[in-house]
């Protein structure tokens, strides 16, 4: 804990070196972390990856960020470490407490990402707006135990503000999840707008929509 606190207050250039030396992290020289408390078991940040101020990420086994991916301000990222001695999740020996962001994937600000199981956010995907919840774990009332399942957000997806996404859910690539929706299962059809509680197909998305073919993560 002392090393973490000391590292937190270092200027970024020194902090990056300390994070690599003391914690074994792999951080590209052109990646950056703001004033954020980010201490997973393993951290991999490719060129241009960034984590903004006031984000907290604790109790994860791995955070992996591909090139130009980003996590914005004030996000709360939690997990339950893999290989814990706790009785929780001991029926899931292959569970992985990981957050994976593909190239140019973006999480905006003030979201809660529960990575007790794998949360994967695909290439050029955007978790937009505010106050969305991604919950990979819950209580199984039939078995009276904690349970978990991964969440996958596909490539070139757009997730609207204030949604809830539950364990086992899949948002297919080239899709949109509308604001305030509940995604509670795996969907398979791409080029669709999903919305509602629970989310279902609302309409098709035209293949010429420019968001889904862009080569730069920045949206003008």
Describe the structure.
This protein has helices spanning 2-8, 12-23, and strands at residues 26-27, 32-33, 37-38, 42-45, 50-51, 56-57, 62-65, 70-71, 76-78, 98-101, 106-107, 112-114, 119-121, 126-127, 133-135, 137-140, 145-148, 151-153, 158-159, 164-166, 170-171, 176-177, 182-183, 192-195, 200-204. With 220 residues, the chain is mostly beta strands. The protein has a single domain (25-213), classed as UDP N-Acetylglucosamine Acyltransferase, domain 1. The strands form four sheets. The protein has a nine-stranded mixed β-sheet, with no helix packed on it. Strand 16 (137-140) and strand 17 form a beta hairpin. The protein is globular.
Q: Quick recap of the structure?
A:
The chain is mainly β and 220 residues long. The protein contains two helices and 25 strands.
User: What is the CATH top level name?
Assistant: Mainly Beta
User: SSE order in H/E notation?
Assistant: HHEEEEEEEEEEEEEEEEEEEEEEEEE
- Give the C-alpha Rg: 17 Å
Termini Cα gap: 41 Å
By CATH, the architecture is named 3 Solenoid
From the helix content, strand content and strand pairing, which structural class follows? mainly beta
At the fold tier of CATH, the topology name is UDP N-Acetylglucosamine Acyltransferase, domain 1
């Amino acid at each position: 804990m002392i090393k973490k606190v000391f590292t937190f207050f270092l200027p970024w250039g020194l902090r990056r070196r300390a994070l690599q030396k003391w914690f074994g992290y792999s951080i590209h020289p052109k990646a950056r972390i703001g004033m954020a408390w980010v201490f997973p078991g393993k951290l991999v940040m490719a060129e241009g990856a960034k984590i903004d101020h006031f984000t907290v990420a604790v109790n994860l086994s791995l955070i992996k960020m591909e090139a130009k991916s980003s996590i914005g301000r004030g996000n709360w990222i939690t997990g339950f470490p893999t290989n814990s001695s706790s009785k929780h999740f001991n029926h899931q020996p292959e569970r992985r407490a990981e957050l994976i962001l593909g190239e140019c994937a973006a999480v905006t600000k003030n979201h809660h990402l529960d990575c007790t199981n794998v949360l994967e956010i695909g290439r050029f995907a955007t978790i937009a707006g505010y106050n969305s919840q991604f919950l990979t774990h819950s209580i199984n009332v039939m078995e009276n135990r904690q349970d978990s399942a991964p969440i996958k957000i596909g490539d070139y997806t757009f997730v609207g503000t204030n949604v809830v996404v539950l364990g086992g859910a899949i948002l297919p690539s080239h899709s949109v999840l509308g604001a305030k929706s509940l995604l509670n299962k795996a969907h398979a059809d791409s080029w669709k707008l999903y919305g509602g509680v629970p989310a279902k197909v609302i309409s098709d998305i035209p293949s010429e929509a420019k968001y889904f073919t862009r080569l730069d993560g920045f949206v003008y």
